[in-house]
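ugh finaly. both done.
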Amino acid sequence: MALVMTTFFYVLVSFSSVLTLPIEELANHAAPFALIIKQNSQIPVSIISFISLIAILNGALVQIVMGSRVLYGMAEKGIAPSIFKNIHTKTRTPVVATLFFSILLFAFAVWFPIVMLAKITSFVLLTIFALVNLSLCVIKLKHYHDKERFFVVPFVVPAIGLFLCLGFLLLQFQ
């Protein structure tokens, strides 16, 4: 559902952008959304820049939390170094895994251009979503008769999610 809604809003914003300014002008500008706001609104571009900065920071925090929890879970299962399963006694958070991902994200932010970071982020998230949907498909197939124990959703839902994620992954390479 998240992919459907995100795709809908992405298409809506893209469609609105193309109707607002010529495609050539949008393609040749470093910040097309800021250009649209500047030419068609009373909102200062600095506010849009500030909102963009907040969104980028929020995305970084989400990646740190997600990555550290995944690494913690892998360490709990024995498929990542056990140091990552250490949790803080008071906050109950995986401190080492969080520090590791914070440093990793900082290094990526310093050494890679923002476009590459966006592509890496999209690739990682779509891969994770694809793997989650694949896992749900496997669970549905293995435990077809055990409907009380596992989630109740038609098999087609995670299957569609899997194929959408794989399709979006393939589109990234074009």
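ok and the 2nd:
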Amino acid sequence: MEKVKDFVKNADRFVIPSANNNHPDHQATYDIAIRVAEELNLTKLEFYVYALYNPLNVQRENLIKIKLGDLRFKVYEALKLHKSEFYTKDMNWQSLAIRDRRRERFGVYKLDDKGKFDNF
């Protein structure tokens, strides 16, 4: 947490994995992001929450779909840099799905929403 506080203190948006995540690194990322936001009192911060392994259960008022365009190729290339992302047999086809995906779905929340939703 201490390593990211200075980096994120002026952030207006975090893009983070969902809560209740089966992937320990993704759950740790969620936990750290929430704790840092709470410690820094980032009440206006928007959380764009995504899910990879768990369903993204988002109410209509919190759901946003973003057209990725060519950004999907950047995401795919970034994933390839992290060999740990391919530790399961399913990750290879999932990474190709990310590369080919045209839109991404996010749940959009504020810090006050924490604990009120399945994914946040």
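summary for the 2nd one i guess: The mean pLDDT is 82.
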